[in-house]
Amino acid sequence: MSTPTLEKHSSALDAAEDSASHLITVTLRIRRFNPEVxxxxxxxxxxxxxxxxxxxxxxxxxxxxxxDGTLTFRRSCAHGVxxxxxxxxxxxxxxxxxxxxxxxxxDKPITVEPIKGLTVLKDLIVDMDPFFQAYRDVMPFLITxxxxxxxxxxxxxxxxxxxxxxxxxxxxAACTSACPVFWNDGQYFxxxxxxxxxxxxxxxxxxxxxxxxxxLNDKDGVWRCRTTFNCTDACPRGIEVTKAIQEVKxxxxxxxx
Length: 257
Known about the structure:
By secondary structure, this protein is an alpha+beta fold. The protein has helices spanning 4-21, 56-67, 129-137, 157-161, 180-184, 191-201, 209-216, 230-234, 241-254; strands at 24-32, 42-50, 86-89, 92-95, 110-113, 120-122, 125-126. A hairpin with a 2-residue loop joins strand 3 (86-89) and strand 4 (92-95). The termini are far apart. It is elongated. The model has no long low-confidence stretch (mean pLDDT 92). It has two domains: 21-126, Beta-grasp domain (Ubiquitin-like (UB roll)), CATH 3.10.20; 129-254, Alpha-helical ferredoxin (Fumarate Reductase Iron-sulfur Protein, Chain B, domain 2, Orthogonal Bundle). Helix 3 runs parallel beside helix 6, helix 6 packs antiparallel against helix 7 (209-216) and helix 6 packs across helix 9 (241-254). The strands form two sheets. The protein has a five-stranded mixed β-sheet with strand order 2-1-5-3-4, with helices on one face. The longest helix is centred in the first third of the chain and has 18 residues, at 4-21.
């Protein structure tokens, strides 16, 4: 008669073997850049055994924790909320924490590189300062006049629904760094800044719409958009970015919002 300890050990071994049987071998091809070593970026291949249901972020962790501790990238919540791990995966802007290995044709090398249009600081990390400066420039906060109210500012469900879509932005920069206008001219505010301006321009409680519209009426503002839909395709939250930009353009022409 087997002892409970032996049965437990056997069960653990079976579980480990079953887990290993689900692993596949993939090549993670990462664009590496270290300014302290070279002025040129290089592609480096890493061969991994990984469950295809794992995410690209898990693969990056595996490289960093088990193969090369010098690999540098941003990540925080790992659940598609913080937006810090936006990068180009197989040529498309995505969140590494929301992209599954099995959805990337793992029979071929999976390429990972930093998002475009922003200066690369090291490996997959880019300088986000210009992106956040554009965000700050559109005044992404509620502007009201008069005395502080004695109760909350009420809003109907219909008024709230007017800007509901653009409240979903997580400032990952996937939309802005997918924009060809932004690639060619870093002065352009970019889709994310316009989306966050939209969120307040169409808020019935806000009184700063005219100010924001004047800011976006600048030569580097909303009129630079060429309606290529790259931003909408890149948004990991499914925001209709191009539609929001067109609504801001319409508000500039009609001054109705």
